[in-house]
Amino acid sequence: MTNNAKIEVFLPNQKDTPYIATVVGTDYRTDLAVIKIDAKNLPVAEIGDSDKLKVGELAVAIGNPGGLEYMGSVTVGVISGLNRTIKSENGNELKLIQTDAAINPGNSGGALVNSKGQVIGVNSVKVVAQGFEGLGFAIPINEAVKITDSLIEYKYVKGRPFIGIRPDTSFNKALAQRYNVPEGVLVREVIPFTGAYKAGIQVGDIITKFDGQKVTSLDELNEIKNKHKPGDVVQVEIYRNGQTRTVNLELSEEQEQN
After folding, report:
1. For a 10 Å CB count at each end of the chain, is N or C smaller?
2. How far, in Å, CA of 175 to CA of 65, rounded?
3. Is the pLDDT of residue 133 over 70?
4. Phi and psi (nearest 5°) for 73?
């Protein structure tokens, strides 16, 4: 959200009188947000069960490709795949529903519904690359509801583990070899009062093992971390000034609030 920005909500039966929305909460990982408008007696979409989806089922994507001119456009396809691991633009891996229903700019954030009109997903990422056609993705509605419920209650997504560092993403195997140091995750910043801070991790440390497993990249570190929950204590091996040491780190809870 930029300074002085505002969100206007246009309803199909009231296109000339938009509502000004307030942001309840946002989640940068999934690009989901909860907004609120001051209106009564609005129709409510029926929520389906994305855990019961099967490949080959009908999938209908609803959205506004191109803006208000094509408001409420519908494209039809099938469920092409389930639990597809896709990396978003911000580097986070998501487990998504794959569909061949056309999802164009403006469809993102719209509903993916089944043959009963029940919402089974939130249209999200479209793969645009040479050699790929008809790859659309949606966040499963069961996961989306957990996130939005948490945003409404806590203003952030509760229960996500947090180490408490910000890495230097430019550090890689080539730099490690150049400076004769081990591969790992180079710590660029330590967040005060987090697990990393309390464990004594410092700027310039290289995390080489996490919970007993070797890590050579941030993706590997996050994959192991995300199997835990806040409050878990894990052993972290770090390289500092030519020496390797092990510290016990209690995972904090990530509280990205907006």
Report:
1. N
2. 44
3. no
4. -65, 145
Q: In a 3-state reduction of DSSP, which class is residue 112? A: strand
Q: Does the pTM exceed 0.90?
A: no
Q: pLDDT tens, 20-43? A: 999 999 998 888 999 999 988 888
Amino acid occupying residue 125: V
Query: Distance between CA atoms of 245 and 222, rounded to whole angstroms?
Result: 21
Question: Each residue of 226-250: b (16+ CB within 10 Å) or e?
Answer: eeeebeeebebbbbeeeeeeebebe
Number of helices (H), then strands (E), belonging to the chain: the values are 4, 17
Other CB atoms within a 10 A radius of the CB of residue 161 amount to 19
CA distance 214 to 46: 45
176, HSE (Cβ side, Cα atoms, 13 Å): 18
Structure tokens at 37: 């408008």
Phi, psi of 223 (to 5 degrees): -60, -40
In degrees, to the nearest 5, what angle opens at C-alpha 83 toward C-alphas 81 and 117?
A: 65
